[in-house]
Each structure stands twice: as C-alpha cells, then as structure tokens.
Write a structure and sequence with these properties.
This protein has 261 residues and is α/β, with parallel strands linked by helices. The chain has 11 helices and 10 strands.
Length: 261
C-alpha cells in the first residue's frame, strides 16, 4: 500500500507512503490517490481531507522518473496517455473535489508534488518545506497542470521564474507569493491542518460545497460569466437546511440581543 487513509471523526487524512522514494508518484500511487478520493467523496460522514506525505523529508519529490522515462520511450501518444492524462486527472480531481482538500506539505514539494499543492484549495507548509518546478531540467514543461495553475495563482513572471529556472524556493517565499496559506513549525503541521479543517466543517456542508464550486468554476472566467456561476451556486443552497438553520440562528441571536438591550 503506497497510500493510506486515516479517519478522525469528520476528517480523512490521505498519506502518500513511499518515504524511501521521497514519496514520488509512480502510476500505481497516482491511481491509488484517485481511488482514495473517490472513496472519500462517496462517504458523506467525511467533511474535509488532508493530503500529506510520509516522513519529514518530502511531501512528494514529484512524478516517479523511471515511470516517466519508460512512457516517453514508448513515444508521444503513450507519454500523453500515461503521463499527461493521468496527471491532469489527479490534479483536476483535487481542484474540483466537492469537499475541502488541505495539503500539508511536510518537506520538499517538487514537480508533481508542487502541482498537487497548486491544485488543492488550501495548503499549509512546514518551515523546512521547499518547492520547485524542475521539469525543465528533464527537457519538458510541467505535465500535471503546473504551467497553467501556477501563473494564475502567483502571477506570470513569478511562475515563469520557477518554471524556467527549476530553482527551489523556501516555504517562506511560497507563502509570500500565495502558493500556500501558512507556514508553521514541522511538529505543528498536521495540527494546523486539522484546525483549518475544523474551522471549515463547522459550517453547513451544502454551503462549503457551493463555495468551493463557485470559486473553482468561476475563477478563470470573465466577470460576467463568473457572476452567473456564483448565482447558480447560491441558488443550490436556497432550499437547504444549511440556509434555514443559519438564518434561524442569526435571527434568534438578534432577537435575544434586542430583548437584553
């Protein structure tokens, strides 16, 4: 097993467990990650997901290079099928997941490890974590969506500096440019991710899902189209218990405050 799922009440933690390979993603591991996400998606008792790597050295060193080399040796069509389609499938699944995915970066996040970080809605990094886009040193651009997501997140020039040089950046720099939400001591990483998850799952699941869907689907659209996405996502929540209960709690508090004034 190269992927573990641990449950703690409403939270599921997915751990890539190839520590001896710096949690590099070979094809079976990518497929296992997709299967784990499918299981969690189907389980209504799970409200949030943390994705991390085993050990303290690496979140993920990226795609498993022998796998890539073998696919590329098989020609363009095979490389597109085995590398790009599989990689795009994983990062798109994470990006569009209907429950919040929080990446806990416990070490280096290179290549595909960085692309998973880009795809996730939220990310927290340990102080010793580093991030890099080293695909150019192998002769090709990022194949898991990184050439598209990173510029949208951190700006074209910052992204191109990382993509064109292959140089690593620190966790501090990653938070400065908006690649991650926060940087914490390594011993506090999972607790910080759990705390963030708890601050989200206290809200109605229908509201959380609608917020995720609205931002993910609308972020790269022209504003008028994005506003239409927002309206459609709002509409899905109107008849829900989340709205009824939220409004009732607010109105009850307001009435109580007025009586005590």
């Amino acid at each position: 097993m190269t992927v573990r799922i641990d449950r703690e009440e409403q939270l599921a933690t997915i751990t890539v467990d190839r520590e001896h390979k710096l949690n590099a993603l070979d094809y079976p591991t990518i497929d296992a990650l997709l299967a784990a996400l499918d299981r969690i998606d189907a389980d209504d008792s799970v409200r949030a997901v943390i994705v991390t790597g085993a050990g303290r050295r690496a979140f993920s060193a990226g795609a498993d290079i022998p796998c890539l080399a073998d696919s590329i040796a098989g020609g363009t069509e095979r490389a597109l099928r085995e590398i790009v389609r599989r990689g795009h499938g994983l990062t798109r699944r994470i990006e569009e997941f209907p429950k919040p995915v929080i990446v806990a970066v416990n070490g280096l996040a290179y290549g595909a490890g960085c692309e998973i970080t880009e795809a996730a809605p939220l990310a927290i990094a340990a102080e010793h974590a580093t991030f890099a886009k080293p695909e150019i040193t192998l002769g090709f651009p990022p194949p898991f969506g990184g050439s598209q997501r990173l510029p949208r997140q951190v700006g074209r020039k910052r992204a191109l500096e990382l993509i064109l040089t292959g140089d690593a950046i620190t966790a501090t720099r990653a938070v400065e440019i908006g690649l991650v939400n926060a940087v914490v001591p390594a011993d506090e990483l999972l607790d910080a991710a759990r705390d963030l998850a708890a601050r989200i799952v206290r809200h109605a699941p229908t509201a959380v899902a609608a917020c995720l869907r609205s931002v993910t689907r609308g972020i790269n659209l022209p504003i008028d189209e994005g506003l239409a996405v927002e309206a459609a996502c709002f509409a899905t929540t109107v008849p829900t218990d989340g709205v009824r209960n939220g409004l009732r709690r607010f109105l009850d508090r307001s009435a109580a405050s007025a009586r005590s004034a």
